[in-house]
Amino acid sequence: MLRRLLLTSVFASGLAVAAQAADSVEVLHWWTSGGEAAALDVLKKDLEAKGVTWQDMPVAGGGGEQAMTALRARVTAGNPPTAVQALGFDITDWAKQGVVGDLGAVADKEGWDKVIPAALQGFAKYDGKWIAAPVNVHSTNWVWINKKALDAAGGKAPENWDELIALLDKFKAAGLTPVAHGGQPWQDATIFDAVVLSFGNDFYKKAMIDLDPDTLASPKMKEVFDRMTKLRSYVDDNFSGREWNLASAMVIEGKAGLQFMGDWAKGEFVKAGQKPGADFVCIRFPGTQGAVTFNSDMFMMFKVGEDKQKAQLEMASAIENPAFQSSFNVVKGSVPARTDVPDTAFDDCGKKGMKDLAEAAASGSLMGSMAHGYAAPAAIKNALYDVVTRHFNGELDSEAAAKELAAAVAAAK
Question: Which of 92, 115, 236, 348 could tie 177 with a disulfide, CB 3.0–4.6 Å?
Fold first, then answer.
């Protein structure tokens, strides 16, 4: 009798362990900075409250290139994670390989089609099936300015290129590093995106989305590179290889005047206890007001065994929950991927982000960011990275860079 009780107890314990193992998700991501980690913790705790254990697989690197390398190794070994943070055309590329999961059961039940913008659905779905859960919408054409430095320089945020240069000159005269920047290809390309957009929506669309050869090699593109050269003159000597969040810290600590970076930077300011309007100012890159270049962090789901599918769908549902979309994006600095989330919990920069996004979507001025994988496939994005970074590092003059850009994109198509 005792033996039977022991066996029953062992069997029950085994079932409990198996159930616990099943209700877990292994998540590969590159959210390793302070602000990003704080935002991710919101999702972890939300899932843990639902009985789903989170197995973390962080891969540092703000643009996600290292994470995609780690993912390829896992998929090749036949052992993909449950979910992977991914962007744009990277999601499409994985979908084409037939290795992604199907979130239709939860997406149909919860009506994702009605509340997630079409621009995001173009990447979160493949062949009509939901394969990824969008967490947010980031916009990339932002400038983050130290308020004290701005006040000392006259207090007026720049609205055009000439005013921007005048402000940077004042920062330089005050002994500050005018532009906080990290010399990594994706960061260089983030600035490039904004400079291209400052020449007009049509120019951005023809160059970055349509990949028109004449536009890429045009005199106007040479002007874009000339402006990149000018901005390079305001960066400190130690910028090479610097992570983006360390550049944000330079602005937060008053060592630099401003940073050109997507709205994930706001998470760093918030984590440091700073408030918009009081400690920092958020504006669109001068000349891009009314337009938004976006990326969207999504969790792409891979095909997993039946024992893992319940937890995977639970994670997808938790991501799209409106309450989570609000609480996560308040911390992250981004705006919700759903259109039905109120802005009441968001600060002034968050409210501006939501308003700008809605207006850009309505006016046709919401466009995918080339730098962040939402304008063209990875091969083209990487070709652009190469030319932009070589130019930024002084290896190409502006005229040569425009010609090389057109040639590199043509070769990558």
Answer: 236
C-alpha separations of 247 from 14, 33, 40, 60, 90 in Å? 50, 12, 21, 16, 26
CB 130 within 8 A of CB 183: no
Q: How many CB atoms lie within 10 A of CB 254?
A: 13
pLDDT at 324: 93
* 8 Å CB contact between 352 and 141: no
Residue 104 CA to residue 271 CA, distance in Å, equals 36
Q: Residue 20 has what pLDDT? A: 43
For residues 399 and 321, the answer to whether their CB atoms sit within 8 Å is no
Q: What strand order describes the sheet that includes 366-368?
A: 335-336, 136-139, 292-295, 366-368
pLDDT score for 5: 40
Sheet holding 142-146, edge to edge: 177-179, 256-260, 142-146, 280-284
C-beta of residue 373 within 8 angstroms of C-beta of residue 88: yes
Instruction: State which residues of the chain have pLDDT below 50.
Output: 1-21
| Residue 293: strand pairing partners | 367
Residue 6: per-residue pLDDT:
37
Bridge partners of residue 84, in order along the sequence? 28, 300
CA-CA distances (angstroms) from residue 330 to 200, 264, 321, 323? Answer: 30, 11, 14, 11
Angle at Cα 197 formed by Cα 201 and Cα 410, nearest 5°? 90
The structure tokens listed for 129 are 């099936």
Phi, psi dihedrals of residue 141, rounded to the nearest 5°: -95, 55
Which pLDDT score is estimated for 60?
86
- For 178, left (φ over 0), alpha (ψ -120 to 50), or beta? alpha
Q: End-to-end CA distance of the chain: give it in Å, rounded.
A: 73
